[in-house]
Amino acid sequence: MKRVSLIALAVILVVALVGCAGTSEDNLTQKQAQEKLDALVKSKVKTKTVSHQPDNSWVGSSGSIDELPDINQKYPLSVKGTSSNNIEIFSSTEKSSADGSGWLDIEAKAFNKANSDRSVSVRPIASGSALGYITGGKYVPGAYSPANELWAAMLQSKGVTLDTISQKLTGNEAGILMKKSVYQTYVKKYGQPVTIDKVVKAVLAGDLKLAHTDPNVSSTGLNIMTQELRAFDPANPFSEKAQTQMQQFADKVPPVSPTTAEMVQVASKGLADAIITEYQAWKSDPSLKDWVFTPCGVLHNSPLYAFDKATPEQKQTLKAFADFCTTSAAQRQATSLGFNPTDGYAGVKNEYTGAELYTALDFWKQNKDAGKPVLSVFVIDRSGSMEGEPLNQLKASLLNGANYINENYYVGLVSFSSSGDITVDLPIDKFTAEQHSVFCGAVGDLQARGNTATNSALVAAMNLLVKKQSELGLSDAKLRVFLLSDGQQNEGLSMSQIKGIVSGLKIPIYTIGYNNDIDTLKELSSLNEAYCVNADSSDVVMNLKQLFTAQL
Question: Are 231 and 223 within 8 A, CB to CB?
Answer without folding.
Answer: no
